[in-house]
């Protein structure tokens, strides 16, 4: 598992923490299936949109595993959220990321759409 440094934005906000946790899972290639709706859509810059929970989880298994993940910001408001940060790989290469989430409800505990940027 990657070394993770979380955002200070998550202190008293379970919704921000959920956005952060999903972003970390996307970057590390290991997510809880319950984080996604059955018909989730992942819009990713490196592939065509990925539709369905099973397809998203399968794609996560192909992701390059980082050595570390730093989440700089995790925010949420109503049915939307976002998390941004940087990953570092074993070879020292770094990549910035931003994931924008549409949640299934204002509870912000299940992702309907992910739009990822690198």
Task: Give descriptors for this structure.
alpha/beta; 19% helix; 42% strand; 118 residues; Nuclear transport factor 2 family protein; SnoaL-like; Nuclear Transport Factor 2, Chain: A; NTF2-like_dom_sf
State which percent range the strand residues make up: 35-45%
User: What is the CATH class name?
Assistant: Alpha Beta
Query: Unreliable runs, pLDDT <50, ≥5 residues?
Result: none
Q: Distance between the terminal alpha carbons, to the nearest Å?
A: 21 Å
Q: How would you sum up this structure, described in words?
A:
- This protein has one domain (3-117): Nuclear Transport Factor 2, Chain: A.
- The chain is α/β, with parallel strands linked by helices and 118 residues long.
- The longest helix has 15 residues, at 14-28.
- A 7-stranded mixed sheet has the order 1-4-5-6-7-2-3, covered by helices on one side.
- The protein has helices at residues 14-28, 53-60, and strands at 3-5, 36-43, 50-51, 68-77, 80-88, 94-103, 111-117.
- Strand 2 and strand 3 (50-51) form a beta hairpin.
- The chain is globular, with a radius of gyration of 13 Å.
- It is built from 2 helices and 7 strands.
- Helices cover 19% and strands 42% of the residues.
């Amino acid at each position: 598992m990657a070394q993770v440094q979380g955002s200070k934005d998550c202190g008293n906000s379970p919704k921000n923490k959920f956005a952060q946790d999903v972003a970390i899972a996307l970057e590390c290639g290991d997510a809880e299936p319950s984080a996604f709706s059955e018909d989730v859509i992942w819009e990713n810059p490196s592939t065509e949109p990925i539709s369905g929970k099973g397809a998203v989880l399968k794609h996560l298994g192909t992701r390059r595993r980082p050595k570390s993940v730093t989440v700089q910001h995790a925010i949420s408001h109503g049915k939307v959220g976002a998390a941004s940060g940087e990953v570092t790989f074993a070879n020292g290469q770094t990549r910035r990321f931003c994931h924008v989430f549409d949640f299934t409800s204002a509870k912000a505990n299940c992702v309907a759409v992910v739009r990822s940027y690198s």
